[in-house]
Amino acid sequence: MNTPRSRRPRAAGLLLAALAMLAAGSAGALDPDPRELPAPPPDAEGLQRVQSSKVDEFYLRPGSTFTAYRRVRLAPVEVSFGRLWERQHREVDARQTARLRTDFARVAQQEFKRQLGRAGGYPAADGPGPDVLDVRASIVDLDIYAPDTRDSAVRRSYVLRAGQATLVAELRDSQTGTLLARVIDRREMREYPDFQLANDVMNSAEARDLVGLWSRLLRRYLDTARADGKG
User: Fold this and answer.
1) Contact status, residue 182 vs residue 169, Cβ threshold 8 Å
2) What single-letter DSSP state applies at residue 5?
3) Which end of the chain, N or C, is less surrounded by CB atoms within 10 Å?
4) How buried is 210 (Cβ within 10 angstroms: 0-12 exposed, 13-18 middle, 19+ buried)?
5) 4 within some domain
């Protein structure tokens, strides 16, 4: 996988695909040009890669349209650490690792739900329907550089960044399960000009800020695609 990039401007991300829709004059649909783009991963399920300088990888099903979707069914956000987590953080035991995953997942779930459901957005749906879009988000390769552990009262850690993570998000039709789009985006959390004391409060705030960025990008993309279809 590629090396994670630092945070990008808030107006970046999935909106690029929506702007491409507008430029092409389509009704919320995009037929990506696969030329000069790497082949999609084996599990792409018919998606084609769309060129993007704003997110690491963006895949879209040719001819997809999001104009019919008015509600979302948000699956529980899954969180996993990178494969070297235990080796790099021997001070963190299994119980603390589970707590960190649970805390990050809770923050991510709250942010996606809040951003998608805010005014003029997409009410939550309990089941499938013709106007329901399934949103499945996973946070993978999570690394918290200085996790707050039981010995933090004795040993203090100072960092310029709280950590890094990768978002893997999928949009599927709720009735058919058809995969419509997939985004993979790797980011480091914000860089501070001076070293900061690392603790649970800081780590939680940075996690919320990072996931908030991802959730706002998704909301803007869906809003733009829907508005284009109305036009």
Assistant:
1) yes
2) B
3) C
4) buried
5) no
Provide the residue range defining the domain that includes 21.
15-230
How is residue 21 written in tokens? 């829709």
Indicate the number of domains in the chain.
1
60: its two tokens: 């879209």
Q: What is the CATH number of the domain that holds 223?
A: 3.40.50
Q: Is the dihedral of CA 148, 149, 151, 157 positive or negative?
A: negative
Element (H, E) at 102: helix 94-117
Tell me if 80 is assigned to some domain.
yes
Question: Measuring CA to CA, which residue among 203, 201, 206, 211 is closest to residue 190?
Answer: 206
* pTM higher than the cut 0.70: yes
List, in order, residues 6 or more apart from 116 with CB less than 8 Å away: 72, 74, 122, 135, 215, 218, 219, 222
Q: For residue 202, what are its two tokens?
A: 């800081």
pLDDT in tens, the chain (231 residues): 455 555 554 444 444 444 344 334 333 344 444 444 555 565 667 899 888 777 789 898 998 888 899 999 999 999 999 888 888 888 888 888 998 999 999 999 999 999 999 888 899 999 999 999 999 999 999 988 878 765 555 566 766 677 889 999 999 999 999 999 999 999 888 777 776 776 778 788 888 999 999 999 889 888 877 776 532
Comparing C-alpha atoms, which of 37, 30, 39 is closest to residue 62?
30
The encoded tokens of residue 80 equal 């996993």
3-state DSSP call for residue 78?
strand
Q: How many CB atoms lie within 10 A of CB 53?
A: 8
Amino acid making up residue 109: Q
Calculate the CA 129 to chain-centre distance: 24
